[in-house]
Amino acid sequence: MRDPEDFNLNLSGSNPIVANRAWQILSQKFSLSTKKCAVERKNFMPNEIEIEKVLIPQDRLQQRISELGSEISEAYQNKDLAVVAILKGSFIFAADLLRAIAIASTIDFMSISSYANQPQSGVVRITKDLEESITGRDVLLVEDIIDTGLTANYLLRVLRERNPASLQVCALLDKSARRIIDLPVAYRGFEIPDVFVVGYGMDYQQLYRNLPYIAVLA
Ligand code: PRP
Questions:
Q1: Whether residue 82 sits in one domain with residue 165
Q2: Whole-model pTM?
Q3: Cα(162) to centroid of ligand 1, in Å?
Q4: Spatial distance between the Cα atoms of 155 and 80, rounded to a whole number of angstroms
Q5: Position 51 in a domain
Q6: Cα 89 to ligand 1 centre (Å)
Q7: Tens of pLDDT along 195-217?
């Protein structure tokens, strides 16, 4: 470990939330007081502080997304593809996936939040609904990660009630070891172990979504 007295961190250019989070991490890690840690705001990469390892590097992500795009383009030829992405986590994956799909398709977004008093119920609150009807369309639900499966299972129920012509799931990451509800995942980017991942849209306390790769936090 570095000598705390020598620790001189440059935070210039970071936004205040990130800088504060970095400060919390450093304070805990080095048991520093504000007096002992000289923090300057310049060229700081706070996201790298807690990252234990890169689980899926950027090039592997892009390669796999390109493959998924080809598979989906083939499967949905002559269909009416409506991509439905679930915010926030899937926004980067959905953007790259859509660009890898070579057939006509639309994209719409749903935003959800869990009910704090019943997190294991799988019931979520829809905070932003779709803007277009999906009735009669071929819907592809796009998720960044499926963990317990509760969220996707609930959303599939909600979307099915709107009578799409078909309804399938595409998930970038599948943490099937944690599954509570069995769920058909038609398109899967990567199977991952039971570790906490961030990056490429996924967060820890709203941070790290901007990492271009998937990482495991220390
Ligand atoms: C993540 C992810 C899925 C859900 C999967 O969302 O985007 O929606 O968790 O978990 P489950 O399979 O156990 O239900 P999160 O709650 O982290 O919100 P976010 O997408 O806004 O970051």
A1: yes
A2: 0.80
A3: 22
A4: 20
A5: no
A6: 7
A7: 999 999 999 999 999 999 999 98
